[in-house]
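TA notes. Do not distribute before section.
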Amino acid sequence: MSTAARPLFAFDDTFVRQLEGLYLAWQGAPAPDPRFLVLNRALAGELGLDADALDTPEGAAILAGATVPEGATPVAQAYAGHQFGGYSPRLGDGRALLLGELVDPDGRRRDLHLKGSGRTPFARGGDGRAAVGPMLREYVVSEAMHALEIPTTRSLAVVATGEDVVRETMLPGAVLARVAASHLRVGTFQYAARLGDPELVRRLADYAIARHHPHAAGAENPYLAFFASVVRAQAELVARWMLVGFVHGVMNTDNVTISGETIDYGPCAFMDAYDPATVFSSIDQAGRYAFGNQPPIMQWNLARLAEALVPLIDADQQAAVAAATEVLRSFQAHYGQAWGRGMAAKLGFVQPSDDDELANDLLALMHRGRVDHTAAFRALADLLRGDDAPARALFADGDGFDAWAERWRASLAAQDRDPAQAAEEMDRVNPVYVPRNHLVEEALAAATAGDLGPFEALVAVLQRPFAVRPGLERYAEAGPEEPGYRTFCGT
C-alpha cells in the first residue's frame, strides 16, 4: 500500500485567520529556472523541515515564490511607516510574501517569508525582484548576527530565479527565504490606526500580545504593559547593536519589529574604525541613521507605536498620552542598563566599573585614533594575558592608551578580578570575526559572477565568531579604509 508523500511544510496561518484587513492574498511571480544558491540546512532542521526533501527542484520553486505549496495562503502584508522621518501611509510588502507560519518542534511559531518574489499590489514603482548580491548580503549578515547572539530574523535559503533584473546593470535575480518570530512591525500598527478602525487596532494588539508578549495580557492595563515590553525589547536590541559596531542603515518604523528582532538587512554594515558618525547607507544623505543616532532614533520610532496605541491605553486621551510618555521615557534607562551590562562584560567586569567614564574614555580614544572597533576589544584580553603589543599597535596615542589601561586594570583589581579569568570571559563576548565590509563585498561580487566559494567560506567563519582559528587571519583584519563607502538596499 502506497503512502502519500509528507508535505514539505505544515502551515498554521494565524495572521491570515485573525487579521483580515492587514494583508492581500497574492502569489509570487514565475521563476524560469529556480535553484538553490544556499540552503541553511541547520535552520531547516530547527524548523522541523526535512532538509533533503526541501533541497529539490520542488523546494526551490516554492522558496522562489513560483509554486504555492499545499496548505499555503501566501499574502502580502500591509503596513505604513515613517521613512527617514517622512510618513508614508501605505507601504506594505511591495516585493515580498508571507508564505505561511510554521510551528517548530519546540512549539515556537515562525513566519516563512519570501523577499524578491515579484510585484504585489503594494509595489511602489519597483519591479518586485531582487538581485543575488543583496539577498546574499542579508543571508550572511543575519546569520552572523544570530551567531553573535543578537535577536534577528534568520535566512533559510537564497534561490536563484534564472532571470536577470535591471539595476545599474543587468544582474542575476534571486529570492531570499526569511524566517522571523513574526513580521509585525511598528508600521503595521500605524497602518491599522490610519484605517480608523479601533477594533482592528485592538485585534492586532491582542494578537501581538498573545504571540510575543503574553505576560502583558494579565496586566492591569494590558496595552500599556505591551507597549512597555516592546520598548524594553527594542532598547536591549539596539544596545546589542552598539556593542558590536553594527549600523542598521534604514531604521524606518516599518523596519522595527514588535518581537524585538533585527529585520531588513539592506544597507547595513559593521564599522571598522570607531566613529559615532558612521553612515553606510547610500540613501541616508543626512546621516539620520548614523551609528551614534541609533538609540534616539529607536526611541522616536517607538513614539510612533505609542500614538497608534493611545486609544487602547485609556479612553481619556490625555491620561493615555501621559501614561505612554512615561513608558517611552523608560527607553533610555533600559538602553543604558543593557549597554552598561554589555560593556562591562566586554571589559572583563562582573558588574559595571566604579570608574563611570572608563568605557566612554576608551571609546573617545578609539574615535580620535580611528581605531578598529572589533580588534580593539579583542586585543584587551591579550593585554590581560601579558601581551600588550596587539592593543598598543592599534592606538596612535600610546601614552593616552597606557594611562587608560592603568585605570582599567586598577578597576578590575578593585573587583578582585583574576586577569586570566577576565580575559577568558571577555573572549566569549568580544568577537574575532564580524562581516567586515571588504570581505562581504568580495564574496558578493564573486557570487554574482557565479563563484559561491568566497561566500560559503565567509559564512562558515562567521558561524563561530568568538573562536580564533589558525589560517583565518584575513577574516579578522580590517580592510583598507574607504572614505565614503556606501551600501545599497538593492531595489
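Switch to the second chain here.
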Amino acid sequence: MPRWKELPSGLPERERQLLVQLRRLKDRSGFGLAALSAKTSYSRSSWERYLNGKQPVPRGAVEELARVCGTDPTPLLVLHEVAHEAVTERPPAAKEEPARSAEALPPQGAPEPPPPDDEPAPAPVPFRRLVPLRYALAGVGLAVAAGFGGGLLLAPDGEDAAAPAVQAYGPGRTYDCAAQRKDGLAHAGHSLTTDALIDINGNGRDVVEAQCLLRRHGFDPGVVDGLYGPASKEAVRKFQATRQLVEDGIVGPDTWAELRR
C-alpha cells in the first residue's frame, strides 16, 4: 500500500475525517490515482490534490469515488455536508462610485444630499444545501454514532455477530483495555478492524484498539484516549522495528496483522 502524505496541520477536523474515509475507500478498492482518473470525470492531478488536502473535495468527486468503489455514498455525503455546512453564496461586491470632480462637489459646509430612497433592498441570499435532506436524515445517525472517528463509517470486512463486543467511542475520554481472542486474533474490545489506516492526528475507536494492543505487546502509546499523537506514533515505530516492518509509524494492514497476534 503506498504511503499517504500527512494532511495539512491547519485542515479543519471535519474535513480531515472526510479525507481519512476517502483515502481508506481508495486503498480498499486497490485503484491508483491513474485508475481513478480513467474511471471518473476527475483528473489524476485533481485526485492527488483532493486526497492530500490541497483543495476541497467536490461533492461530485465523493459520489463518483463511492460509485466506482461499489459502496453506498450516503455516509460520505453526510460527512461532506457537515464539513461544508456553512457554504453560502457570496453577495456581489458593491460598485464603487466614480470620484466627483471639484466642480461637482457641494460647497464647503453644505449638507450632503440624502441618498435616493428608490433603490430596492438586496434580496436575502438563500442557503444552499449540499446534500438532499433525505440523505442527511438517513445518514445523520451514522455520523453522530461514529463521532467523526477515523475509520468508523466504512465497516471493516469480516465482522460478524459472534465477534467480541465493541465499546462505543467518544472524544475527551480514556479507555480500559480488554483481553479477548476471536478466531486466533487478539482484540481489546474497541474495534474489529484489521486494515484501518491510522496516521498522526487520527482519532476514533480504531486508534483506541491500536493503543490497547500496543500496550499488550509492551509498547507504551501514552494515554489510551483514541487520539493518535506523537507518543502513539513513536510506539508504533518501535513496534514495527521489532517485527521487521517499515518503520513509518502508520498503522496499516501489516501492522494490524502483528498487533492482532
